[in-house]
Amino acid sequence: xxxxxxxxxxxxxxxxxxxxxxxxxxxxxxxxxxxxxxxxxxxxxxxxxxxxxxxxxxxxxxxxxxxxxxxxxxxxxxxxxxxxxxxxxxxxxxxxxxxxxxxxxxxxxxxxxxxxxxxxxxxxxxxxxxxxxxxxxxxxxxxxxxxxxxxxxxxxxxxxxxxxxxxxxxxxxxxxxxxxxxxxxxxxxxxxxxxxxxxxxxxxxxxxxxxxxxxxxxxxxxxxxxxxxxxxxxxxxxxxxxxxxxxxxxxxxxxxxxxxxxxxxxxxxxxxxxxxxxxxxxxxxxxxxxxxxxxxxxx
Length: 299
Hints:
Blueprint: E1 2-3, E2 39-51, H1 55-68, H2 71-84, E3 87-96, E4 102-110, E5 138-143, E6 146-156, E7 162-174, H3 183-189, E8 194-202, E9 205-206, E10 212-213, H4 228-232, E11 234-238, E12 246-253, H5 272-291
Parallel strand pairs: 4-5
Antiparallel strand pairs: 1-11, 2-7, 2-8, 3-4, 5-6, 6-7, 8-12, 9-10, 11-12
């Protein structure tokens, strides 16, 4: 693991020396035999966590995110992602459901590129504004042999008032463009307490000499595709398998202000006992999600 923005490449656990590379210098332009057959997939989970003190407050939280992150807003986010990665939207279909949820489907084709994209290891564009997100919506956008999807999952603890909202986002491209260019925009499009990101390059493409290339751009860490002010707000951990072109980064907000995690109640309205136990419950929930394991709570 590398922690807190340490992007140096450790020696591979399987053995052998690993050469450090320039974190932002793109690979030399490749002359390919035909279409670039590499598949680049960016998958991540975004978590929003809150404390809702009653069953009614939990229902209101679900209704809030269902409205704030409805299919229309998802469509807007995916439309911008398509533009960022260089895709043309052919068709959009969407449907809202009763009592909650929605679906959106986009048909997209890759735009013709005026020049070979360099895909530097650097943050992509930011959105103009920020907001929150949804209930049982499912959004799918199709590229030529590629896709963009968003699925949402709300969840509440039956006893202690903790409610968790998760958005799963996948951006998969075949060809020259890397979906990492959309990462910075997507992180800023959701209110993210925890972000868990996976990036993988699969398959190979062949140059005119017949040599296989298993990746066509340089990458040391997913963190290098996130702008520094944003990255500074998060605790960051990397778990990477460089020989397999598999990259994994976890982010968790450093700053904890209780009022930012309360729904339907203010910190000043909590009893002394609640003011002590609610932050403990919230931090415990966040740590379990971040580390991906159940943690024994010490009273």
